[in-house]
Amino acid sequence: RIPEHPRIVKLLGSVIDYNDSDQTPVLLVMERLRRDLYVALKNRLEFSVRMRVALDVVEGLRYLHGLGLVHRDIKLKNVLLDEVNRARITDLGFCKPEVMMSGSLVGTPIHMAPELFTLKYDHTVDIYAFGILFWYICSNGVKLPTNFDVCSSKDILWSAVKKGVRPERLMDFSDECWSIMTKCWDTQPSQRPYLGEVQEKIEQILNNTRTTSMATSSIEYEGSDFGVGDFVLLSEITKDAFVQNLKLRFDNGRIYTYIGEVLVSVNPYRELSIYGHNYITSYKGCEMFERPAHIFAIAEAAYRTLKQRLINTCIVISGESGSGKTEASKIILRYIAAVTNMSNQAEIQRISNILIQTNVILETFGNSRTNRNDNSSRFGKYTDLNFDYKFDPIGGKIQHYLLEKSRVVKQQIGERNFHSFYQLLSNKKSLQEYGLYLKPEDYYYINQGQCCKIDRIDDKKDYEKAIEAFKVVGFTQDEISTIWKIIATIIHLGNLTFTDVDGEHCLIVRSNDQNDQLEWISKLLDCEPSDISSALTSRVVAARNEVFQSRQNVTRAYYGRDALSKVNCI
Q1: Most CB atoms within 10 A, among 113, 167, 394, 476?
Q2: How much is the pTM?
Q3: Would you list the domain boundaries of the chain?
Q4: Which tens digits make up the pLDDT trace of 362-416?
């Protein structure tokens, strides 16, 4: 008969073979639970949930030991979780009264205490096995400890265990958790702690976690004063009620609100302290509506769907200019990098850093100041993240489309060209190299909006960030130099002027000083000035078997100049 206890799986009945003289049960009917701990840890669980599971297992073992029973096979697959992630111990097939154990060798190799091989053991083998189980619980994964994974056979593993080899300490293990593990798997059974001591220590860890969470998370609980966190719960579905709720939440520092599985975000245009490690931890492993509305919940839902259903997932970020789309994409990337495999965090951090730095480069050459936003993206982009079989990011690519090329040659009053032009002009060291001797206000392409300098934008600092981003992504010094030469060429093209000859054709206006635009353009493009002049003041026409050159008037020359600048922009 299986003992009845909240932490032990319930036996509902059995099927007996009455043709057998012993009438031995051939099938046990037990309660159905959601999943085992192995599956749960593959999908990651929040730290507090994992500590609660550990407490449940200890409680179940204490009950069995109180009845004089020893489980002898505590492992991930033998701990089942219900809908709210409360644990129950199952598979009592090896469970025996301590006084009846005949010295048989049973259990799962990596969870077996060394004294099992002497065939003389007691209930402390369960404490040892719990120590190994607790290692998995704290690691929040199912990957074998490295010290065990290197063992090529069961015999080699057993030999290592008998010699004192144990799982290694991972970098995110706290001293308290590591102390519990090492004491539980002590080689000497008499030195292992009582389960009551283990339970007390885990309860203390769990209480400290809750206290820290309450102290650091200002959005852990939202009362009625903060408005309704999900618009579908509004008592009155009207535009006025929608806006009023949005304003109430924003005034109380709540920039996120759900509409079912859609997240509405209001850009606060300032930095908020709601994206730190404590917030990441509080949303990691949680269902979407377990916590207040947050972009981390969306990122976690997409990542969890990828792992559980093994299908591609997508997050669509849409909104008007200045609504915060670019920042939202950065936040999602940072979250994914933070919640993936801690044991390989260095490589994951390197990959995520490349993706984030790619955004810096895209913003440099694709973002500009508009009348609504100092850092407005003037293009669309699709970011593709690739994951390996362990669901760790291993790379990605960014596709861009619909770049506003016309901004290179024309901007409205109060707006700027792309950031890259102003960043280059802020770097005094490179100005002579590119022939940019004039003030920014004197360059036609970058001063049509009459706002070359914006107090809120530090072009020099952003230039340094762009250079660093180039290096992180993997650009060579020659490639970086070539890119800035193209930007300098476009600036010079904007100051290129034409003079009419006879109404039918024109010439480029030259100067005899160091500011001769044509001379610098040809130097930067590594060609002859005559080549540039010919390309802008004439065009080649092909008719049947003839090819001839046609002169351009001033209007068409300026059109050609602008067209060349936009092509260089691509």
Answers
A1: 113
A2: 0.58
A3: 11-214, 218-418, 433-569
A4: 999 999 999 988 989 899 889 899 988 888 888 888 888 889 999 999 999 999 9
From CA 273, how far away is CA 282, in angstroms rounded? 14
State the Cα–Cα distance between residues 166 and 180, nearest whole angstrom: 13
Question: What's the distance, CA 309 to chain centroid?
Answer: 19
218-418 matches 433-569 in fold: no
Q: How many angstroms separate the Cα of 237 from the Cα of each of 230, 234, 243, 256, 259?
A: 12, 6, 11, 18, 12
Write down the CATH superfamily of domain 433-569: Myosin VI head, motor domain, U50 subdomain (1.20.120.720)
- Is the Cβ–Cβ distance between 375 and 363 less than 8 Å? yes
264 band by pLDDT with thresholds 50, 70 and 90: very high
CA distance 53 to 72: 19
Helix (H, G, I), strand (E, B) or coil at 14: strand
Taking a C-beta distance cutoff of 8 angstroms, is the pair 459, 416 a contact?
no
Higher pLDDT, 318 or 46: 318
| Helix pair angle (47-66, 195-216), 10° resolution | 160
Q: Identify the helix (H) or strand (E) that includes residue 508.
A: strand 506-508
Q: Which stretches of 75-145 are DSSP H helices?
A: 124-139
Smallest CA-to-CA distance from 289 within 262, 325, 318 is with: 262
| C-alpha distances in Å from residue 352, one per residue of 190, 383, 472, 473, 540 | 48, 12, 11, 11, 48
Is 413 exposed, middle or buried (CB count within 10 Å of its CB: 0-12, 13-18, 19+)?
exposed
C-alpha span between 491 and 448 (Å, rounded): 13
pLDDT digits (tens, 9 = 90+) for 192-210: 999 999 999 999 998 887 5
CATH architecture of 218-418: 3-Layer(aba) Sandwich (3.40)
Q: Which residue has the tokens 């999908």?
A: 43
b/e map 113-140, b = 16+ CB within 10 Å? bbbbeeeebbbbbbbbbbbbbbbbbbbb
